[in-house]
Amino acid sequence: MIMTVEERMENLFTRGVASFVDPSSKFKEKLLKKAKGEISEEVIIKFGVDPTRPDLHLGHAVVLHKLRKFQDLGCKVVFLVGDFTASIGDPTGKSKVRPMVEQKEIEENMETYLRQVSKILLTTSQVFSWIRNSDWFYGVSDMLPKEGLNLDFWGRGINPSSFLGKAFLYEKTRMQVRDLKKQEAIGVTLRGLFWTLGRITHAQLIERDMFQNRLNEGNSLFIHEMLYPVLQGIDSFALYNIYNGCDLEIGGTDQTFNMLMGREVMKINKQPEQAVMSIDILVGTEGKEKMSKSLDNYISINDEPRDMFGKVMSIPDTVILNYYQLCTSADKERLKGIEVKLKDPKINPRDIKLDLAEEIVAIYHGADNALGVREAFLATFQKKEIPEGIEEIRTNEGEILADLLVRSKAVSSKSDWRRLVEEGAVKRLREAGSEEKIVNYLEVATPGVYKIGKRRFVKII
RNA sequence: GCGUCGGUGGUGGAGUGGUCAAUCACAAGAGACUGUAAAUCUCUCGCCUCCGGGCUUCGAAGGUUCGAAUCCUUCCCGGCGCACCA
């Protein structure tokens, strides 16, 4: 079944999209031309990336899948790594001031990031690029020369800490020059920043809901936080200069305000304003809050197939359709079918969820693994078999079981262990499938498979 | 700079000299019921324990007291208000 370009675009602009800003449809038109191969000009999609958390979860993946679809239509995705802005602290987050992240660390983070991303996105230079915003926000004096940096300037050594030394480093580390081979690198000076700030009013910035809320609750609102959206807007401006375009910015709904500020900054600078697409937020495994690492309700795309499957199975029924929409490639027809099935009282939603889990695991680990893990899941939880590949702990002669488990971090403390035993949560499993409840918390560790609660398994050897 | 209010467990937030390992809610864990769903019910939720109890905690350090999370001193951190400056 081959969809026409128009059909694909329709899907692209509606599926999981919370809002799309593109007055007079300039972006849509350009995209259509690009997809049909009528123009050679690049279509640049900006996506802001947080450099501090390289562990991607399904919530991130929703946007990444969307980006992939744009790539498939010939667009170039540019990851904007907000290392500079992160060091300032995005007010979107929990308002904790974030630590400065070293450039080297960023590069390392990006490596792991890209490795994960490549499960979803194409990373060839034709359709992908990345750049960090310290590239234009840092000045020469922000450079921190490393020890042992050997600079030679026409036969004369240069002190790395001197301005000249820093300038050298600056030239060497700028991605615009080093990686993108730009003749002229753009940078944002204090003067330039104020030029922009002089064209944005206080009212424009504080209209943001979150700022209002903070003020109403009597919390503090710092200037740098108010400026954050502007900086993010300047990123769009910079991108336009570097990539000769910045046609669309994509992000979660929580980024809408910031992304719209990009339009403002571009307008101020007489650039064509970027379109803005905000994507629905995926809820976490408990079905209420947004999926995030700090709430520990996330499914990492690096999760082992078994964990991933289990976590999907643990979501409430009410969000099954939501997950289907945002995490799989199921088309409209199938989504409709699933919606009908979910309403059918004769069908156990669990079975639909089993399919969902398998489908999601297949995206990240392949169809074979997904099927295998589905069977293993059924075996473990329906037939109560001992799962494979569980953690093994070696026991020392005569060691108390409690000590062993605390040592291996299977339980958090001896008190914790005692409680679990008293609650009848600990069982030793026998080959035949029978279980023996552990009643003595001072028991000496003997080899075997132990089950703590419903899902913790430990093998002692 | 001045004034003022505050800093308590994973989170929010009580407690203002002994009955406080600290009400309560949320989060979390376990059991029952189940579909490793939700909802519901019960229990647990600092550490150690020979189950009698012991030990360490309330921003940090000192002090008062028989006794302090609670009072005093100093320091650190934060909110708010005022002033200075502009």
How is this structure best described in words?
This protein has 20 helices and 13 strands. It is of the alpha/beta class. The chain has three domains: 5-139 and 187-279, HUPs (Rossmann fold); 305-381, Tyrosyl-Transfer RNA Synthetase; 392-460, Structural Genomics Hypothetical 15.5 Kd Protein In mrcA-pckA Intergenic Region, Chain A. Strands 1-8-7-2-3-4 form a six-stranded mixed β-sheet, with helices on both faces. Strands 9-13-12-10-11 form a five-stranded mixed β-sheet, with no helix packed on it. A two-stranded antiparallel sheet has the order 5-6. Residues 90-100 have low confidence and may be disordered. It binds one RNA strand of 86 nucleotides through residues 218-220, 286-287, 295-296, 310-311, 313-318, 320, 348-351, 353-354, 377, 380-382, 412-416, 418-420, 422-425, 452-455.
